[in-house]
Amino acid sequence: MIKRLLLWLATAGALAAMLGVGGAAAAPTTVTCGDSITAPGDYVLAGDCTWSRAFAIVIMASNVELALDGHTVTGVFGAFSGIAAQGVSGLHIEGPGTITGFEHFGVGFADVSRSSIEQVTTNDDGVGIFLTGSPGSSANVLTGNTATNNRSTGIDVASGTGNRIVGNTALSNGVDLADHNAGCDQNKWNGNVFVTANQSCIH
Fold this sequence. Notes:
- The structure is a single chain.
- The longest helix has 18 residues, at 2-19.
- The chain has a single domain, classed as Pectate Lyase C-like.
- The protein starts with a helix and ends in a 9-residue tail after the last strand.
- The chain contains one helix and 20 strands.
- The protein has one helix at residues 2-19; strands spanning 29-31, 35-37, 41-45, 49-51, 55-59, 64-67, 72-75, 81-86, 92-100, 105-110, 116-123, 127-132, 141-143, 146-148, 153-157, 164-166, 169-171, 175-179, 188-190, 193-194.
């Protein structure tokens, strides 16, 4: 009986190891300025980093979670964007963390859907957070972000519908909040703290 129990435990342990049951979750993959994310998975910013060329971090795969882990991505002369993604879905950009000093935008989504940006601070960028594309980024959620002192706009929805922009703070930007869809289309702006906006449908 004891031998059979030991054999069962050994077999169960081997099977669990094969299936990853009961083991520690895989650690997120670290990224830094200059990296492209080309596969789904969990990623974490390794530390503060500075970038002087086009895109600091590019996301080229769907179903990616990127944690900024309290770090800062800084753009210097010639830097276009802090975090950029195009034509993908299921992204989660999670702060706390800061994107600063980029010429065009801190975080930019082009034709990105069903994704979220949460608790990210953007300052001294062209646009803090930018949703655009044709037909546009849709069904995204922006919540708990802070956009200050961005030269053009704090949070800007250039195109796309069905987005929810809720509980963000945008102050001292060229324009704090902007939606370029007529009447905001089906984008929902609620509970945001701001002074200036380009349409009365932004709240």
